[in-house]
Records
---
Amino acid sequence: MASKLDALNRWVDEIARLTQPDRIHWCDGSEAEYQALVELMLDTGDLTELNPATHPNCYLHRSNPSDVARVEHLTFVCSANAEDAGPNNHWMAPEEAHRKIDALFAGCMKGRTLYVIPYCMGPIDSPLARCGVEITDSPYVVANMRIMTRMGEAALARIEREGSFVKGLHSIGDLDPAKRFIMHFPEELTIKSIGSGYGGNALLGKKCHALRIASWQARQEGWLAEHMLILGLESPQGETHYVAAAFPSACGKTNLAMLIPPAAYPGWKVWTIGDDICWMQPGPDGRLWAINPEAGFFGVAPGTSRNTNPNALAMLDRDAIFTNVAETADQQPWWEGLPDGKPARDWQGRDYDPANGPAAHPNSRFTVSARQCASWSPRAEDPQGVPISAIIFGGRRESLVPLVFEARDWKHGVLVGAAMGSETTAAATGAVGVLRRDSMAMKPFCGYNFADYFAHWLSFDRPSAKLPKVFHVNWFRKADGKFVWPGFGDNMRVLEWIVGRCNGSVGAVETPIGNLPRREDLNLAGLPLGDAQLDLLLGVDREGWVREYAGIAEYLDSFGARTPVELKEEHARVRDELAAPAAAPRAAVG
Ligand code: OXD
Ligand code: MN
């Protein structure tokens, strides 16, 4: 009798013929399998054991120094029609892409084991979850996928029930950057990645499936696949609001998702649902319901400390994989920003010498199960997801952009997200600190034309919809080269205002760019901020914003005729308000 696994078996056979592995291993996701992989990697030197007394079951992986980040210039969306990929993606015709990459896959697994990894993105019994199968020759990828996804037998059983899955083929190849490609074939629900073992390029469930392919599927099916953390904010009265927030890579999503409220907030609690990816769908009640498709965190290590993210630090002292961090003399993991300990060996395994640069690579990472986080919410396993009250966009902006503002409605919110800009970080190769537009923090991850993506976002505004309120935050404002806002736990003050706006319990002032808190609307107690600093954080520099909106117009025009007219009209509305003589400030209610 035909089984729904026939297509999977045929595909595995076909890939084995192409790549010619010595062995094929179907992953069951068990603890015994994980331990066997760890043993294997300890033997080959792919992993070294960290101090078992301080960090039991923790391992260090040192990657090839040329393979430490996502490679956007080698990442392609290979849709049949170039226009569908849009100017925001690199495009290659599917036939040419298959030919090019299959030539690199030919025979690439000789002498290696081919691992078949069935995985599920999202709670295993959630209607919002989707399955995939990754084929890889990297045991490091298998071990990481076990932490990051629901991997193994349960996922295979769901694939057998449903028959459909995303196909992901990965090989580290020979790690030659000249033979490295990350290719997506959205119409075929297929990913092919070769030449890199780095997380975002190689753990195909994450960016490749859960964002690029899923965003394409989401558009067709009426949902959203977003680069967002999800947190729950519980008040002392026991009321919890769920918030999703999009920041570009390495801009603090993990820290915000695990925030511990400061002393000024007795009885408040932040619950972590996810730190990187959010899938949202309108529910029967008109609200957006969200799941985190991942099961673990692949977080940036440098800067993570007892001061910036105590929950993260506490979850990293057992059962974790570290990639490209430094080591202390007694084999504890170390990175810049940790106040204790000092590095003895750097991320490349050399004796530490400051002349060689930072001890840990700036994009060094930890991989750890979400369940190890003290703020992890059991609602992360809820098959229905959680209802989202607010969406927050944010970027790294040294100047102009205030601490927080609220979009006046959904359409304005979509414009605010589309117009997002941020200074680049080490999460991708290329220059760091350059301002680029990064709509909804999805520039590297949207699997289709941004103009169509903006239209898709606008389409959620239907009469029956009860959409979240939309906000924009900027923790990174600088004066005299220093950050003005303390950030980290104190971001709770901004979250409180955001939730207050959702409840209609706190005020704001209307401005052309959106509604801003007045000083009296924010809890600023105990913060060492003077008048000049507060003016900077809570002010609107109209001339600066006129220039910003001119830049945004150029950006929206770069998508040509596909840019939704509605978005351009919304832009024109704000632009004209900015140009009009300033009216007396008006309090915004509700
Ligand atoms: C990540 C990224 O790894 O955004 O999450 O680069
Ligand atoms: Mn990310």
---
Amino acid sequence: MIQKLLIANRGEIAVRIIRACREMGIETVAVYSEADKESLHAQLADEAICIGPGPSSESYLNMERIMSAAMLSGADAIHPGFGFLSENGKFAALCEKCGITFVGPDAAVMENLGNKQTARNTMASAGVPVIPGTDHPVLDAERGRADALEIGYPVIIKAALGGGGKGMRTAWNPQEFHLAFLTAQKEAQMAFGDGTMYIEHYVEHPRHIEFQILADSFGNVIHLGERDCSIQRNHQKMIEESPSKALSDSLRERMGEAAVKAAKAAHYVNAGTIEFLLEKNGHFYFMEMNTRIQVEHPVTEWVTGIDLVKEQIRIASGESLEIKQEDVKLLGHAIECRINAENPKKHFRPCPGTITELHLPGGKGIRVDTDIYPGYTIPPYYDSMIAKLIVHGKNREEAVAKMQSALGEVIIEGIDTNVDYQFEIVNEARYKSGDFDIGFLEMQERDS
Ligand code: MV4
């Protein structure tokens, strides 16, 4: 049983976790940086402990300070949220060592999946479809060049410790390979301190489809359907929805079975996400597995009626899943727009500052997950996402109409935001048709 939980995070996700705990009768401990003294999460928690200066490296990424706060407050569990330490195997291991429940999978499982090459091999051995590619680490360009020829061009060179687009280059022919490899490897070395690479055939014009899974410590694994996250720019997701227009019931069943198989193969426990690339012809491939609660979890919550954060906490407490696969029904359609403090007209430059005026939409089928309030000053140190606007309708058409209406109502003064940019997207014919792939926003930018 978890009685007191420390949230090793900030912003809207910290608030989201505090709310789940309050409903469950669990005491909450917030940690906050000196830049977050006025933050909502620090005010809403039962206790709040300052863990250091604004820069993340000295606060939200500092394992020792967070662990000290957990010890000091007598917390018996830590929820890492997303970002920061959420996928750090060393932190999960430290929790284990200190006798604190980490709300997530155990360290070894996290590290196996964190290495995209070993994750690929785990999935391939279990019979989960993976993209044709290397089954060994690639450390030098010459070896890679031979592998690429065997795989077939175009290829994509990825960092084993990467994910999210860093340390990644495509090569369209053998002439391009050498430079692409060295560039990707150098970037990987800089970002992750490791130049281990792997190579895959480059899949053109796919959708990004991810499956939410829940796994308890008794070997029960279920999937909660998919999220279509194809609307993104520079590997930053902008709009996510569930269900995906690209999935028939039978494809959903097959991809869902593959997702469950993937989680079982990894000996996964807690909430997790299996990312797939889906080709237009219906072929799908495992890409990576995320071992955290994700930003876009609310769309799944809305179509399934399942509270994912509560399930995470129940699973971490050692409870077994009460939901059976046949009980999971996807009802209606949900869409999420990420609202960022940034200026789309200035290359999406982040725009911290003070919110002078604020109106957020509401009503039937509208949910806003945020930590902002009038007079709040957004600090410059963290991610620019300040709110998530989630809508639910009986079908995609109604959900899109609701998103158009809700975005049109938002007033955030004092800072620049991407609200108008999001409004334009959801009013585009191509977006409304639902016929898009991961190139949608890049296409847009070339047009305008
Ligand atoms: C790919 C791919 C095509 N083929 N792998 C981007 C981030 C990282 N998670 C993997 N990514 C991709 N891997 C193969 N073999 C295309 C991408 C990709 C992408 C994937 C999902 C959503 C948006 C994307 C944007 C550009 C590239």
